[in-house]
Amino acid sequence: EVQLVESGGGLVKPGGSLRLSCAASGFTFTSFTMNWVRQAPGKGLEWVSSISSASTNTYYADSLKGRFTVSRDNAKKSLYLQMNSLRAEDTAVYYCARGIAAVAGIPRHFDYWGQGTLVTVSS
Amino acid sequence: QSALTQPASVSGSPGQSITISCTGTSSDVGDYNYVSWYQQHTGKAPKVVIYAVSNRPSGVSNRFSGSKSGNTASLTISGLQAEDEADYYCSSYRSIPISVVFGGGTKLTVL
Fold it and tell me: Which chain B residue shows the shortest CA-CA distance from A46?
């Protein structure tokens, strides 16, 4: 059974940093592009970042302006998102999602999602 | 990165059919068959119901179908059931810039 379990969310002050993790199980982690998608309270889904199976290609939403860094550890079957210079508008549930049939590391769709971890940026 | 355009809400009675549209550009929906649709019940993670414009994952009811014409993709749900009440999001690969883009979401109400 495919499982994606996010952790690392919490309350952080504006300008602070946070590192999210996603532990994967039930599939061959090294075969898939992995992704972060977020959802602000009461709002829609927003793609955040994708990383190809061997970390060769990484992509980010323009709105992040270099503040976030995605990485993965295939030996640990884990995905990470380092978030720096956090702003109130980064407050959201962050989902880890498995990508399918990636085109140069960008998935054509997401077939499994974790339950998400809530990040709240507030003073 | 502007989102794909979806209606904010649609509604229908049990047994009826509804269609949700998703309008993009020639850099995403119009030029690639990589449109997917996600169902999200309140407080839950999204679930893919259609991928590659018109393909249904295993386990998804055949009441769900997808299509595309030009820059607009559509999700049709036939034989509406109470359990279909949820938010629906379209998504597409985008080439300029290389990214994934979502629609703003459509709230489906089953009357």
Answer: B102
Query: What is the residue whose two structure tokens read 């940026």?
Result: A121
Q: Do A95 and B36 touch (CB under 8 A)?
A: no
Of B108, B95, B110, nearest to B21 (Cα)?
B108
- Secondary structure letter of residue B88 according to DSSP: E
Rounded Cα distance between A122 and A51, Å, is: 28
Contact of A59 with chain B, judged by CB distance below 8 Å, is answered with yes
pLDDT mean over A77-104 = 94
Each residue's pLDDT tens digit, B54-82: 999 999 999 999 999 999 999 999 999 99
Q: How far is CA A121 from the centre of its chain?
A: 17
> Do residues A70 and A51 make contact, with C-beta atoms less than 8 angstroms apart?
yes
